[in-house]
Design goal:
The chain has 140 residues and is of the alpha+beta class. Helix content is 36%, strand content 26%.
Length: 140
């Protein structure tokens, strides 16, 4: 079994998340921020929550849209690796984020006080002030 298919066979968790598409970008941005602030991770777009491979309609346009969303919505700047993959004749986007040295990252719309997220298990949680300070300390 291909390495990607092995990843897709796993349940969502601390470093793995599936999204069907970019129709609601906010949860995707929240996940990428949480990955960057916590331990890194991979987000697959074009995969249902149960791991079914749906594919992405227009992969290049979706990749472009995602790149713009990340640049416009996340501070400090986050530069994940985004690649197009073909699995079972369907195209997926894989977004890989490493633990960031410039954390804490946050949603610009919510600001550095309210917009910081961390990954706990398979969910994203808003960080409180103490946790934000801890992330800053760990990064320096």
């Amino acid at each position: 079994m291909h390495e990607i298919e092995q990843s897709l066979a796993k349940p969502e968790g601390k470093q793995l998340e599936f999204k069907r598409d970019l129709s609601s970008p906010k949860p995707i941005l929240r996940t990428l921020i949480a990955f960057a602030n916590t331990a890194g991770g991979q987000l697959f777009i074009g995969v249902a929550d149960n791991g079914d491979i749906m594919g992405v309609e227009d992969p290049l346009a979706e990749e472009e849209r995602l790149t713009s969303l990340i640049a416009d919505s996340i501070a400090p700047r986050l530069l994940p690796s985004i690649e197009l993959l073909t699995v079972k004749e369907k195209t997926l986007l894989r977004v890989e984020v490493h633990l960031s040295s410039s954390r804490p990252h946050y949603l610009k719309a919510k600001g550095p006080e309210q917009g910081v997220l961390v990954r706990i298990g398979s969910s994203n949680r808003q960080a409180d002030t103490q946790l934000i300070s801890e992330l800053q300390r760990q990064a320096t």
